[in-house]
Specification:
Length: 179
């Protein structure tokens, strides 16, 4: 994948285009019509994917449109990339979640305790913004869903306490309107 200053955005676009090609949307024209991606964005992305060996070019079809197909290396990159995007940045997991919940048994993780902990992160020494605390809550939810999906936790409504944890993402800063 691309190694530029805006690597994250390009990687996200690369993964998105790979997923679309895998689902059957395989020409720049189809990417434009189905996903609203401009050809100015998709053609360089397709070129990067070709150079990385994630896709191969198919035959030129009607009206000179070339279709693309995802190869095994591309499927592996897609799977790896989405998994990385799913958990997000590991620093939130290490710095905030594991530092507090590492030794707590899952059955003792009650929604109210988690909400209180998130509220503590918003005040006192830490003063984390609502958006950051929401991100922490969402990462915890992903971890619980992962455990349920892989059979580490029972598949019932009470296995994921994060379902019942409320956390606003709304900014508390006063907006300034320029007229």
């Amino acid at each position: 994948m691309s190694e530029t200053s805006d690597r994250r955005r390009r990687t996200d676009l690369d993964l998105f285009v790979l997923a679309l090609i895998e689902s059957g949307i395989s020409t720049p024209y189809q990417l434009q019509k189905a996903a609203g991606l401009s050809q100015g964005a998709t053609i360089p992305t397709l070129q990067r994917l070709l150079e990385a060996g994630f896709v191969i070019q198919g035959k030129i079809g009607l009206r000179g449109r070339t279709d693309y197909k995802v190869v095994a290396l591309g499927r592996a990159a897609l799977k790896r990339g989405w998994r990385k995007r799913e958990v997000g940045e590991p620093r939130y997991l290490k710095r905030w979640i594991l530092s507090r919940w590492r030794r707590t048994p899952i059955l003792e993780m009650e929604p109210i305790l988690i909400e209180d902990w998130l509220a503590e992160l918003g005040g006192g020494v830490h003063q984390l913004a609502n958006g950051t605390r929401l991100k922490i809550r969402n990462i915890m939810s992903v971890v619980f869903r992962h455990g349920i999906r892989h059979g580490f936790l029972p598949r019932d409504g009470h296995a994921n306490p994060m379902k019942y944890v409320r956390q606003s993402g709304r900014s508390t800063k006063e907006q300034t309107y320029l007229t």
